[in-house]
Design brief:
Number of strands: 5
Helix content: 40-55%
Number of helices: 7
CATH architecture of the largest domain: Orthogonal Bundle
CATH class of the largest domain: Mainly Alpha
Radius of gyration: 18 Å
Oligomer: single chain
Largest sheet: 3 strands, antiparallel
Strand order of the largest sheet: 3-4-5
Distance between the termini: 30 Å
Order of helices and strands: HHHHEEHHHEEE
CATH topology of the largest domain: Arc Repressor Mutant, subunit A
Bound molecules: iron/sulfur cluster
Strand content: 5-15%
Number of domains: 2
Structural class: mainly alpha
């Protein structure tokens, strides 16, 4: 497969996934960007649950992010809370309703069946391959990785558990599975 063909296939796949996500969101009166912001907030850690991080992750302007978050808050899908130390920083937390909605939306209809048909590659191999393509594209385009904490070069293993080498704060077993705006892969 040529680079152009790979690009076209990925583009069509992304479009299809987006179309499915859009159709799902519209059933609940949500725009695609609102669904994407909500989904991100269910996956990110406490250093990344701010309006600024949502904008960085989705590549959106401050105005679009602000409107989307307002709509999600009005629908009771997320709450806003100022940071304990710096009141200018706002943390965003999906509500139970918001979490339940994203759980229903995460699995694209028919993906399992389509993967089974390919037969030549396992789910794990495909995930690893796609992650590696994503990482490569992020590096080339100078984008933040937003990787899972347990794969970050600042994640330190201490006898008492994981610690973030940047903030020097302890990380729980759940924290290390979440994605982070400060994430960097080992060199
Ligand atoms: S170890 Fe890395 S990914 Fe984890 S919280 Fe710290 S900076 Fe973020």
């Amino acid at each position: 497969m040529s680079e152009q063909e790979a690009n076209d296939a990925l583009e069509r796949l992304c479009n299809l996934l987006r179309m499915e996500a859009r159709a799902f969101g519209l059933r609940f009166g949500l725009q695609p960007v609102q669904m994407e912001a909500l989904k991100y907030l269910t996956q990110c850690n406490r250093y990344s649950d701010t309006p600024q991080a949502v904008g960085e992750y989705l590549g959106l302007t401050k105005g679009t992010v602000s409107q989307s978050l307002k709509a999600l808050e009005q629908k009771g899908l997320l709450t806003k809370k100022p940071d304990k130390q710096d009141k200018r920083v706002i943390h965003l937390t999906p509500t139970l309703k918001g979490n339940n909605l994203t759980k229903k939306a995460t699995q694209t209809k028919g993906l399992g069946r389509a993967l089974a048909i390919t037969n030549s590659i396992t789910d794990t191999e495909l995930t690893q391959m796609l992650r590696s393509v994503l990482r490569g594209l992020q590096q080339v385009n100078g984008r933040k990785a937003f990787g899972a904490c347990h794969t970050c070069r600042f994640n330190e293993q201490h006898p008492e558990g994981s610690v973030c080498g940047l903030t020097h704060e302890p990380l729980s077993a759940q924290d290390v599975q979440l994605i982070c705006r400060e994430h960097q892969y080992p060199q």
